[in-house]
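Private note to self, pasted from the team thread so I don't lose it. Backbone tokens:
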């Protein structure tokens, strides 16, 4: 079942079931898997703790339940761009399992920014369901529109090479319907949701263009970076919209 495969791919949950042959079918479920993770965050922020404690717990849960491989992608991507002056050298650095100065700095700054933003967002629990869903939607966009940067095989190679532009249509429609329903219901979260979607578009477009220029396409590390930076951009836009 494609949903079970998507959950196994994006989280540490070992849902029983056979792996599907057409991995691109899992893309339909990416936003839903993000929303499921968001439900865990929703429960966490209901704890009777201070905003700072709840923010840290959300970050810990996000890293744990996803095996932190998105953050690993951020570190590798930063090391590759910072230490490589050619496509080949950048990809070689990104394949190295060791973390360098650029990756360390990138992770520190990302965690600091995410923590600072979460302190303001944890009092609005529905937004914590939305943000992970948008982060996975950003990955769907990238996979559907970009080519794979490496010549050989990689963790994300099959998914990227098989995905087509139309695989992004239904996931985008899911989020679009959420935005529309919030607007029709005159929800106070309609504007923040629309702002978060705008942040995701800007962040994803920027990283994809940069990756195409420097690497010639995307890799699994780039997809991880798209998710993390997309969530961060969404959180920033939500905070600005709620201000």
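Design output:
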């Amino acid at each position: 079942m494609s949903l079970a495969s998507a959950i196994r791919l994006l989280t540490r949950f070992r849902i029983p079931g056979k792996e599907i042959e057409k991995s691109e079918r899992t893309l339909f479920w990416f936003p839903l898997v993000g929303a499921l993770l968001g439900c865990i965050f929703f429960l966490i922020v209901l704890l009777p703790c201070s905003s700072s404690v709840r923010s840290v717990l959300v970050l810990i849960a996000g890293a744990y339940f996803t095996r932190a491989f998105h953050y690993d992608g951020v570190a590798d991507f930063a090391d590759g761009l910072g230490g490589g002056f050619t496509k080949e050298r950048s990809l070689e650095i990104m394949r190295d399992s060791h973390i360098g100065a650029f990756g360390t700095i990138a992770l520190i700054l990302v965690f600091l920014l995410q923590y600072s933003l979460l302190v303001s967002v944890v009092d609005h629990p529905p937004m914590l369901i939305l943000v992970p869903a948008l982060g996975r939607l950003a990955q769907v966009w990238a996979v559907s529109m970009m080519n794979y940067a490496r010549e050989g095989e990689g963790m994300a190679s099959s998914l990227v090479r098989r995905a087509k532009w139309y695989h992004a249509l239904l996931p985008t429609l899911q989020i679009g319907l959420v935005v529309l329903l919030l607007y029709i219901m005159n929800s106070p979260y309609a504007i923040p949701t629309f702002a978060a979607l705008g942040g995701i578009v800007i962040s994803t477009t920027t990283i994809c263009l940069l990756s195409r220029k420097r690497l010639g396409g995307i890799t699994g590390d780039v997809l991880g970076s798209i998710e993390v930076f997309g969530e961060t951009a969404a959180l920033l836009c939500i905070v600005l919209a709620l201000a």
